[in-house]
Amino acid sequence: MASNHNHHLFMSHVWATGQDKTHSIARKLKMILPNLKIWLDVDNLKDISRLEDSVAESTMVIIFYSAGYFESKNCRRELNAAVNMEKPTIVIFEGDEASTLRQLKDECFNNCYGRGTEPTSDKILEHILTSDPIAWFNDVAFSAAAMNRIFMALLRNLPFYTRNKNCRLLDNGIIVPGETNIESIKHSIKPPGTHSMNSLKYFVKSESYLMKPQRYLVNVLVCAANVEAFEIAEEVQGLLPSGNIKIHLVDEVSTLGKMQIGMSNELPEIDFANSDKKLPVQTLISSGHTQEELIDETSALGTTEIGTSDGKKTESSFESNDKQLPHVKDISLFDPAVFTENCKLLVYLNKDVFQNDGGGLESILRTAIDMDLKIVLVFEQNPEKGACPFGHFFSVTPQELIDPPYEIFRDIAIPLHVRPQYRNVSLQNILEKIISTF
Question: How far apart are CA 59 and CA 85, in angstroms?
């Protein structure tokens, strides 16, 4: 921290609607970094006439936006000081991003007039939205992803990391406790037909990290009447080494995509020698140096193509909802092979689910649940792709699927977010659910 600064972060919020959440976020940040110095009204506000001085003595400003923020005179004072001093500023919010940002801009235009030394609303918005606003979620993994962005922004503005020789330490990102860890998910995998944990062994050879996991096959079923689930399945498929996940298309109740059960004894070794490395945030903010280097595995993991039994890629021949899917040979839904492997049905929920599909998804869900096939629900968070309040699904889902014995919503659906860091958390949560034994 610079010698003329007393706090790393200045947290600005309107008391009426943002106080509880702002204080909660501050506590979470300090739980990870106890030495983090945060200016917070309940702890540091001694003289309200010194608000501008407190902003000046802080490295970065965090605005927790909630309704009425720009209507508050003191919030505008803090904001104006941050803009005039060109303080690095980040906006945090809860709720739908598109509607929240519309509300934020409208409030700013209606309350910030640029009188005297005050910046105009255009200048304010340009300053506070220079960095992408951060959506805040209560879920541990998603809040950890949000804190990752906060800590990265702070670190990039601390003197230690603004020096040329140290700035590259942050190039590969940081690790925040609570973030979803793909390696821990891999360790939870159980090979088919066994109850022993899948061992992922790391060893050093010529300064390279090599991974040799046991071979494991997860079968993911996708309904043709729910075609968007296929794209999600492909994204999840890319999180594991090639061959670990197979995707199969179900086009009607009596058929399933034919499963390729055969597996080789061992996957090829994956060389991590040139993969990126992330650094734990606690060591970075305290000393700016660490000897602990953790592997970022995502750059080394491949994807698997859907293919025929001989392993050759097929031509796309199945069309549903204007999207092309690979051709899959069919077998009976009652084939015992379905239940000899780890197999889950992936269902994608948005505002159009169960609409105009001729009852295809409904019938497949009923049959799958009758046969004790496990369901993984994913619901869209992108308004451009049909995001909607979860309550909407209770109005469009056939009542028979809502009531016992089916109760398809008794298990928590996984939110599917858009922004890369949150998207990664969503995909890893889906993967964890897919490979779990329930």
Answer: 11
Per-residue pLDDT of 155-192, as tens digits, reads 999 988 887 677 788 888 888 998 877 776 766 665 54
Is the bond preceding residue 405 a cis peptide, omega within 30 degrees?
yes
- The C-alpha atoms of residue 8 and residue 61 are separated, in whole angstroms, by 9
* C-alpha–C-alpha distance, residues 10 and 48, integer Å: 14
pTM above 0.85, yes or no: no
Cα separation of 17 and 114, whole Å? 25
SS (H, E, C) 65-131: CCCCHHHCHHHHHHHHHHHHCCCCEEEEECCCHHHHHHHHHHHHHHHCECCCCCCEHHHHHHHHCCC
Q: Are 318 and 324 in contact (CB under 8 A)?
A: yes
Q: Which pLDDT tens digit goes with each residue over 374-429? A: 999 999 999 899 999 999 999 999 999 999 999 999 999 999 999 888 999 999 99
